[in-house]
Amino acid sequence: MGYGKPAWLEALYSETFFVNCPVHETAKKNEKNVLCLDCCTSLCPHCLTTHRLHRLIQIRRYVYHDVIRMEDLEKVIDCSNVQAYTINSAKVIFIKKRPQNRQFKGAGNYCTSCDRSLQEPYIHCSLGCKVDFVLTHNRDLKPYLRVCKVLQLSPDFLYPQDMGDDEMTNETPNSTIVDCGDEPMSSYCGGSSDSENMSVACTATDIVRKKRSGLYVCGRSINKVSDEDMATSMSRRKGIPHRSPLC
């Protein structure tokens, strides 16, 4: 008696990918693009926290069809004689067969299951075509299956930015750039305890205060504004307009 399709392979054909996950329907980037080989179910990125120790394989899209990277798929099943295609410098294999009507019968290389034209020396256009061919002729798929106890997602897998802190990818912390104009930004100055010699750092708040009132001078004490500074600031203001005397 032969060995048929394993449960994860049946799920690979029956599950629908790149649809919204019903469990996380309100979350962003909730398309189901991962298959858990241990649970035999499709997952979205938000589902991965409960499957992080399972065997996971990413499903990708190419010309409106589901594909898997060849290097990932070969860890669980023999992919020899299946034609691969190159996407972003990586080889991928179609999951399901893609039937194509042969316009004329002639010499050439065609898929064993769906008559799709292929390059030499390939004889299968997809994983599904090879599996059907093997089961039809050998009735045993077990020699083509490979033992794989650990299968993790590739490093280029994108996690949504709104996931929890433990699942989020490295993100640049929020920062604020303050424009001090021509005045250099000074760092915090520690030192003497004498209040007369203490200097205050030029912070964003201080700069705003200077722009609004014209009284604060960066690097001087807030409470020690001299009369000279006050007079200089007041002299910059427009004087009171004088009206001509009435006749």
Automatic annotation (TrEMBL):
<dbReference type="GO" id="GO:0008270">
    <property type="term" value="F:zinc ion binding"/>
</dbReference>
<dbReference type="InterPro" id="IPR006734">
    <property type="entry name" value="PLATZ"/>
</dbReference>
<protein>
    <submittedName>
        <fullName>Protein RGF1 INDUCIBLE TRANSCRIPTION FACTOR 1</fullName>
    </submittedName>
</protein>
<keyword id="KW-0862">Zinc</keyword>
<dbReference type="InterPro" id="IPR000315">
    <property type="entry name" value="Znf_B-box"/>
</dbReference>
<keyword id="KW-0863">Zinc-finger</keyword>
<feature type="domain" description="B box-type">
    <location>
        <begin position="21"/>
        <end position="59"/>
    </location>
</feature>
<dbReference type="Pfam" id="PF04640">
    <property type="entry name" value="PLATZ"/>
</dbReference>
<keyword id="KW-0479">Metal-binding</keyword>
